[in-house]
Amino acid sequence: MPAITHILFDCDNTLVLSEHIAFAACAELSNELLEKYGKEHRYTPEAALHEFVGKNFRTMLGEVQQKHDFTMPPEEIDAYVARELGVVIAGLRANAKPCAGVPETLARLQKEGKYKLAVVSSSALPRVEASIEAVQINHYFPSGTVFSAMNSLPVPTSKPDPAVYLFACEKLSTTPGASVAIEDSRSGATAARRAGIPLVGYVGCYDEAEERERMRKILSEDCGAIAILEHFDQLDEVLKQVEAA
Known about the structure:
Layout (H helix, E strand, L loop, with lengths): L5 E4 L6 E2 L1 H18 L8 H8 L4 H12 L5 H22 L1 E2 L3 H11 L3 E6 L3 H10 L11 E3 L14 H9 L7 E5 L2 H10 L3 E4 L6 H14 L4 E3 L5 H10 L1
Parallel strand pairs: 1-4, 1-6, 4-5, 6-7, 7-8
Antiparallel strand pairs: 2-3
């Protein structure tokens, strides 16, 4: 395997503990729609997170409509996506925290200068920017190094579509094989794998031992992660495993 030159970080629950904030809003708005369209099902934030983690709200709305058999007009979808974004950004600015060890690891990586760093997310660009600003790591990701499947591409999409990863590699003047992706979800890990990018699975965001073990198995066995990262202080050793693979 060629030497790694770029580390491509997912944002939500990889750099920033943001998903619990986001899915509280997603569940509330989805339940509002389910009631409006006469459907009995309701989502808790935990259930929405479990089912839709790694996907943006527009994609989630599409799947909710399909699963519960109703159709929203495009203008209503746009309105709900805008509402969700506003609520989530406000929540992030007030309550977001970095994943354990992230600020220290980014500071060290920047000082060493061995790798170039980027963020590759399914989430809307304003949300990603609000997340990294809220936890004061945005200075590690200057203009041109933050990519959103919703806003950076000519046609909006979401992971597990690999398009945002391929776009990021092109804009960063690197190749998938010379990059490594760090992902915490099945959809994100699948996007990286489909793009041909070596994958590190991150499970440090999962508090419960049972859920952490479940995701370890999914990321390694189902998604092909070369290594599993429990805490960012293990990153150097994990990157050595990737380069030796």
